[in-house]
Design brief:
Elements (H helix, E strand, L loop, with lengths): L1 E6 L3 H16 L3 E2 L6 E6 L1 H10 L8 E6 L9 E2 L3 H9 L5 E13 L6 E5 L2 E6 L4 E7 L2 E14 L7 H4 L12 E8 L12 E3 L5 E5 L5 E5 L2 E4 L3 E16 L6 H9 L7
Parallel strand pairs: 1-2, 1-3, 3-4, 4-5
Antiparallel strand pairs: 6-7, 6-16, 8-10, 8-14, 9-10, 9-13, 10-11, 11-12, 13-16, 14-15
The chain binds NADP nicotinamide-adenine-dinucleotide phosphate (NAP).
Keywords: ATP-binding, Cytoplasm, Kinase, NAD, NADP, Nucleotide-binding, Transferase
Protein name: NAD kinase
Function: Involved in the regulation of the intracellular balance of NAD and NADP, and is a key enzyme in the biosynthesis of NADP. Catalyzes specifically the phosphorylation on 2'-hydroxyl of the adenosine moiety of NAD to yield NADP.
């Protein structure tokens, strides 16, 4: 089995990375950053997001394992003091995995350049730099509303606990292949009207945004941002691709949500 280690710059992450690298050498795993079967990330959820984008061309064959060096994350199953157990689990690996849906983002530019495709693990957002964003929102090809406000966030189920949650979106179990649209400060008054609620979009549907003006937009895809090109249209749908995690132990999703946002002391 070929393993890549992907750590953030934090001091503890770097120490854990060195220790894990040595353990993999001692146990005769092959370390291969170019073409791994397993990517072990060390840091937090942000680190796993970065690793996902680095290895997005290998999604069909690669599986991810997250080690966290701070608090428990949504993509990280192992704590940094459990790496001996992680190595033992990798030694008895039988290919077990769990898969989460991804968001497919297709951007069509105003200058008729070839459309560009991006994959998001958490979400994509569209915002405008300097003034109110005005965009027509289509669902399944039908005009739904004209949105005015700061922006829109389109998230995956596993991204529903990230930016989407700060916007008042619902937390969605990643077994559901749906996407969610959440508003970022919409304008609602006697003249302008939006739904003003997060929307859960069915698996086979898609969302299209046609901004009223073609310039001045900021598109984010997870932690990456793009601007400067005039956007004519954006299309969002659940990707045919998924991210696969090597699953050696199972922590229930709702237990993870409770741990991250409520804490057991408030649960009863
Ligand atoms: P970052 O500052 O490292 O990430 C922001 C926070 O989001 C970190 O605490 C991170 O956890 C957490 N996070 C990431 N994915 C998550 C998930 N699926 N569920 C729950 N929490 C999650 O910034 P970054 O590395 O550039 O990450 C970009 C992400 O930040 C975006 O995908 C977006 O979701 C999030 N973000 C949130 C807001 C907001 O809530 N207002 C605004 C902008 C962006 P770790 O500490 O474990 O890395």
């Amino acid at each position: 089995m070929k393993i890549a280690i992907f750590a953030n710059d934090g001091r503890l992450s770097q120490i854990v990375s060195q220790r894990l690298r040595q353990k993999f050498k001692d146990t005769h795993f092959v370390l291969d950053d170019q073409n791994p079967d397993i990517v072990v990330t060390i840091g937090g959820d942000g680190t796993l997001l970065a690793a996902f984008h680095k290895y997005s061309a290998l999604l069909e064959t690669v599986r991810f394992v997250g080690v966290h060096t701070g608090h428990l994350g949504f993509y990280t199953d192992w704590r940094d003091d459990e790496i001996d157990d992680l190595v033992i689990s990798l030694q008895s690996d039988n290919g077990q995995s769990i898969s989460y849906p991804l968001l497919d983002v297709r951007v069509t530019y105003a200058d008729k350049q070839k459309p560009e495709n991006f994959l998001a693990l958490n979400e994509a957002t569209l915002k405008r730099w300097s003034a109110t964003m005005v965009t027509d929102v289509y669902i399944g090809g039908e005009l739904f509303e004209r949105f005015r406000g700061d922006g829109l966030c389109i998230s995956t189920p596993s991204g529903s606990t990230a930016y989407n949650k700060s916007l008042g979106g619902a937390v969605i179990h990643p077994n559901l292949k749906v996407l969610q649209v959440a508003e970022i400060s919409s304008i609602n008054n006697r003249v302008f009207r939006t739904l003003s609620s997060p929307m859960i979009i069915a698996p086979n549907d898609w969302v299209t945004l046609i901004p009223a003006r073609e310039s001045d937009y900021l598109l984010t895809v997870d932690q990456n941002s793009f601007h400067g090109k005039k956007i004519a249209q954006l299309r969002f749908k659940i990707s045919k691709k998924s991210i696969h995690f090597a699953k050696y132990r199972h922590m229930q999703f709702w237990q993870r949500v409770q741990d991250a946002f409520i804490g057991s002391e408030y649960a009863n």
